[in-house]
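Entry 14. Structure prediction run on the chain below.
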Amino acid sequence: MAAPKKGRSASAQSKPWRSLALILIAIVALTGGMFASGHTTPRLGIDLAGGTSITLRAVPEKGQESAINKTNMNTAVDIMNRRVNGLGVSEAEVQTQGDKNIIVNIPKGTNSKEARDQVGTTAKLYFRPVIATEVSGGAATPTPSPSASSSASGKATDKATDKAGSSASPSTSASPSASASTQGRAVTDALKADSSPSASSSAAASGSPTPSASASVDPATAKLQAQYAALDCSKKSVRSTAGKNAKATEPTVACGQNSGGQWQKYVLGAAAVDGTDVKKAQAVFNTTTAAGWTVTMEFTNKGSKKFGDITGELAKNQQPQNQFAIVLDGEVVSDPSVSQALTGGSAEISGSFGQQEAQSLANMLSYGALPLTFKEDSVTTVTAALGGEQLHAGLIAGAIGLALVVIYLLIFYRGLSVIAIPSLLVSAALTYVIMALLGPAIGFALNLPAVCGAIVAIGITADSFIVFFERIRDEIREGRSLRPAVERAWPRARRTILVSDFVSFLAAAVLFIVTVGKVQGFAFTLGLTTVLDVVVVFLFTKPLMTILARKKFFANGHKFSGLDPKALGAKPPLRRTRRPAAPVDPKEA
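Output returned:
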């Protein structure tokens, strides 16, 4: 029996060091990841870094109240995100608040007026014929035009195969090394061909513009061909302006991204169909033709005629002039091609769609047809100076709170503060590093309520140490020595700590779910620090207490250790004594 006991003792003695090594390795790894990511400070919210916060309220037209729903509000958030990102803003936050409101937080360094103009307007959706397109900065190789046919099902559905994911390139570029002037002549030819359906096929087929094509170029066409030749859609600053302010009645240039991640540049004709002509669009999984996920569209009576006319004209042309571009806010989101007139009042866009991609396109098409506008309820501007003052005040409040906790520990727990203070520092280090990593990972921004949550967490963390220390003291008061007292106190303290932290985490989770906006920052920070409290107590505080309990300073109950039996009013140690033998009766002997 002796050997197993020694084995268990050796194993028990090694566990504290293993736990300490584990948490220290985790801190080093997270810190290394923080420096490797280049984000060494937590991302600050609008109220701390400064910026503009815009509250928008959705307002439907009369009789269209059902347009305000979760799906369309989420689509509106996606569109506004695209708009704000187009301004070059990388840390903007766009999120719904309640059923009808959208909050847009734009950090400092952005033109707030331009941002308000961008996010506060209704999305503009158009169907424009493609005149020319090529990978921006790349070579142009023609692709075969897919066919389109009516559905054989009970409901006639026209089909257009989506080629946005292909490397569709124009027939307007003579070679990969085509010069700007060559591109300009090609666009001129394409524009002329676009105005003359009979000539468009020959122009597209030739792929080689003649010098005489540019002999009579009008100023508008010359400007357009210069824009197309200079357009570099691989640059974000260029994409943010290309085609944004184009009139629906005029040709324009635009950018769009294919599934390979390459940016295409386009010359597009005047809008042939407006987004409001789309009655309904939805993503469906087509099992009859093995096409997978597709997007179906239904047009209004007016839109059906316009769509039939434009697809009839496009079907006469060759690639890429048999394509129509679906343009949302100046950006091409899809460019299907057709081979016959689609006059059935409905159409189906098929291609290599995933479910999310198909649903996203369907939402954009639906949203463009919705009579949904947004009105500004409030616009709050926070200067960087004011945000800095708030952050400074929050840090001072946190420092004061931490100092008060440290003073309390030094006065009431004396030597035990050697365990509590490092535990607080480890918890603070983990919180800081994780917040810095969560900024680029999930967009977490440290706002003023989140700072308040971190300050409250100081008390929650200190409370866990106090529960453990008091359990140890109770065991010492019962007359036990320190090492057994630590091991007997831990199971009861552990249970109390877990219950307390579970209640705190549950409150934080409920608060995060039922609230919106900045209050979620408080709830998120409170929940995060509560989880870290459990990690620190289990992997750092308890192992460190086990190790220090073997030291004479604590084991002998030094008066400054915080575990002095006399100061705690401990009972004398329990001792076993032999009972005296009963006297023998002489008569019995």
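Residues 124-368 form one domain.
Filed with the rest of this week's runs.
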